[in-house]
Amino acid sequence: MFYLALKNIFYYKGRSIATFLLTLISTMLFIVYVSFMDGTHTAMLEDSLKVYGGAIEIYKKEYRDIGGNEYLIEDVKTITDKLENVPEVESFSSRYETYALLSSKNYSSASMVVGIEPSKEKEISSIALALKDGEFLSDKSTNCIYMGVGLVQKLHVSLGDEVSYIGSASDNSFAADLFKVCGTFKTGAFEFDATTSFISRSYFDELMYAQNKASYITLKLHDINNVDNTNIKITKLLDDNSLESLTWKTLMKTMVEAMEVDSIFGYITLALFVIVIFFVIMIYGFVNISSRTKELGVLRCIGVNRSRLFSLLFWEIFILTTLAMLIATPLGAYICYYFSIYPIVIDGIAEMYKDYGIISDELPMAFDMLTIGWNISLIYLLNIISIIYPFYYIDSFKPIKATKHV
Length: 406
Known about the structure:
elongated; 2 domains; 6-stranded mixed beta barrel; 54% helix; single chain; 19% strand; 16 helices; 406 residues; alpha+beta; two-stranded antiparallel ribbon
């Protein structure tokens, strides 16, 4: 029946080409759509992590619930030495967070003041890239403060102006100093920009008596999709019951819930897309096969049984689908691969994206051979299923009656 199927494909050239093109276009669109949907979700997560979050963060237990200097990590170097031996970790940095009162000549505002390691922070977050005016901190910066644009507006200060700092050191003693505004940043996250400022740890640690201490340690991974396995590995490596290692899934619970809702709508759209593809293929297959009722009736009259008749239709659709897949798969995969490396960029709206808390105007695709594999497998399955109803329609005719069908 395979050779007869080949002859039929070449005999019915118009129908064969139409089926081939329909499968080719459907497969490519399906691969690209799923890749775009997955890539958008990944980009959404990475953009959120770039602003200030980490894929994994290490805390002393109770710090996130209670806070305060009693729950600071006391020996940062011991932990960071262990993290050097985790190949899944791309980079890491310790942060010292505290809340203080910042004042200009006439205005005051509460602020979260963060002591950071500027050189490492450039590798982990987009704080340096969010620079609006002035300059970012360096590891040797002294009494320089890097402030959010919202906080600058509250205090009515500009570059070079001084702000006074009043807070509590890590030992709960009084801490005060004068800082010069060296740079301002805008991430687009309004609350963050209105309440946050940064100081280099090399200077801040002396003021706060925070040498070798940290509120937490933030980590950037090579692959955020492998965060759970990496976190298990880090927890075992730390081997300290007083510490907890939390992934972005816990730290960004609101974002996770938003992504889950978006995924639900994405899968609904995907299901509708699959249904449309299936019915388009099936309807065309029905028209194609039903128009051959007389031919298939003759085959039944000369002794071709039902199973062999189904085999003939199966081989026809299988050959055409395979040929379409051999072209559609590499083309679709190449499109996904290319736009995963060189994302689509919408010029001119980056600033608008920032105003809504999105720091990138790139629309990447996800390149994953496993995903592409199930995409083409699903199209294969839809094509095979599409011949079942037409076959039973043809089979409902008596062989003699089928030969007289017009």
